[in-house]
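Record pair follows.
FIRST:
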Amino acid sequence: QYACNENRLMLYKGFGEKTQQNVLESIGFYIQSQGFFLYAQLEEIFPQIDTYLKKLFSPEKVRVTGKYRRQELIIDELEFVIAEPNEVIKPKFKTAQPPELLEETANNLLFKLKNGLKLRLYTGVTNRAQTLFETTGSIEFIKTFHSAFPDLKFNGNETEEDEIIFRKAGIEYIPPCLRESSEIIEIAKKQALPKLIQPEDIRSIIHCHSNWSDGSNTLEEMAAECIKRGYEYLVISDHSQTAGYANGLKEDRVKEQHKQIDELNRQLAPFRIFKSIESDILNDGSLDYPESVLQTFDLVIASVHSNLKMTEEKAMARLTRAIENPYTRILGHMTGRLLLSRNGYPVDHKKIIEACAANHVVIEINAHPRRLDMDWKWISYAMEKKVLISINPDAHFLEGFDDIKYGVLAAQKGCLTPKCNLSSFSLKEFD
């Protein structure tokens, strides 16, 4: 960073002003991301922390709250309600390697753990229902709720959960994942909350890569794993020919793969493997094969993988042309973002969704924990415009199928229902 600010990178062969600026921006993004964690990262350590706290203070006195309970994609603090005063809690943390105490108020302790994660404890609780409620929802949600129900009295017993708050208000219980915006309160008043999609609603694996391109497993292994997990079909979508770094399929290899798929479908019936490709969206918005090849696929997923540094005007023109291609069936990872690693290219989400509606193109929620792209905040608008969503793992190995869960958790925040999700279609519906 110092070298970039002093223009020293430009002294070296191959480093121009644009490259130096890109390096500087990447370093800045990295620094800003320190202390933040993906939901999936925290899910790995949450059970340890939760179990430890319950062992220290007893299970009935410990409740998770905050962003983790709300299923936020990126989290800077793991928050718990602890029904004990500070003077009881603090001595428990005096261990051989104690966490750093960053803040302390009468009802709040903030620690920093050795891995950089912040642990916030809401303490001295006399009304757990109220504390759980007010520490779970976003600021916007809580403010709107109090305005909507100004006469609501918080005087429940300390051991009650926050469901009682909604009963007192006379509205439908709002799950924690939906407590983000004010609009959801109006829906709950009408007793009209949707049936949110669940992991068990996923009936297929769409968008994954085998060892034909840059995946780790054979088609046979991937199909066997799908059958083992109870999925009805597999949409194999290896990389297209421009993706040389990913062993993308040239036209002759597309034909070879299709022959293998035909043979496997004969062997594995009624399970089905569909012939797909993740076609690169080229700089001019065209897809990565001529029409004669594109028409041999059951469906095409169109994605941007190169030249990600684009203006919104460039990105919109590129994506729109790909969406309008008659062979495009799914738009993959719309913005190309990698959470905590890089920003996506700028797009006008509404116009992209409207283009997909006009061209009957499905929008992917890429379930990889670092992508979760398209962002859940645009799901409601997509459903309003009758655009199907598809929660896809983008798996490159068998364990990657597990990422479906993170796509579902993100989609729940956008009120996605099974009927609006392509990967929840049965084989008969999909075919």
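SECOND:
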Amino acid sequence: DHRPMPPVEVLDMRTQHHPLHPETRMALADLRRSAGKAIVLLNRRGWSNFLSCRSCAKVWGCPDCDVALVLHRSEGVISCHHCGHRERVPACCDACGSGSVARHGLGTERLEHELVAALGGADYPIFRLDADVAAARGRANAVLARFDRAAAGVLIGTQMVAKGHDFDGVGLGVVLDADATLRFPDFRAEERTFALVAQLAGRAGRGGSSGRVLVQTLAPTARSIIAAARHDSIGFLEGELRRREALRYPPYGELVRIVCSSLREELALQAARELRERLTLSDAQILGPAPLFRLRGRERAQIVIKAADRGAAVAAVTAALAQPLHREASVSVDVDPQ
């Protein structure tokens, strides 16, 4: 409707100990007093990221994946977000017997609890939308409809609250831990971060109301966050394309990812090494083999091919896989992995 995009303020969290910046707390309190609406994005579900023993430093991990178990307090479980393993929340440490179990990090479930305590009431509802809520058929649409009908309130959730929604009267958008996606080993990390902030910024200030966006981050100088705060899509795109061209990432190169897995680590690496020796490609960079974290009980190793010609890369992989590998190892090939 030819309205300007809302102003975006980047909040430096490097010296903060509370999950909400003082500016964010003040903005939410002001919105509560004026009976306004806000959307708060935290791209991490659950109550806490992981549990640890304060005495022996044990971290509760998944028995089938090399990841920490996430606390879901309302269900009384800690669970793996990769394979679905679940177990009861420990009352004490099974390694040393200590009853001092610490909870680390913030997820949407805990954020909902804290905002209900600080802001909520019959006249100011707090809504949550994440994969846990959306698991029940129709729940996601029901939450969005209730937030749309409400005269005031806060919608918190993962990235599903940032994309494509058109709510009138949302005066405040907040992104928590905006740099989390930058810490993933993914060539699209900058793009994902920019997109997440830009999408949430587009939810505020629609209809006849003005909007404001606050972005909390430990990386306030990251180019993707600065560009998103300036609504500078063209500048970000130009810089990102230059970087990808220099590194031969898509769209200036083709990627093929080969993952070898086995119940035994040495066999996964052996299969990947054998495949690497069979690959013959000109004008291509072959990275690896490199170990990956264990997933669903299987040890993994990967090879990544960065090639100029997709057809030649696929043909080379096909030829390398023509001969069988160890019968206890399996192989998956992903062309143009995202």
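COMMENT: The chain has a mean pLDDT of 91.
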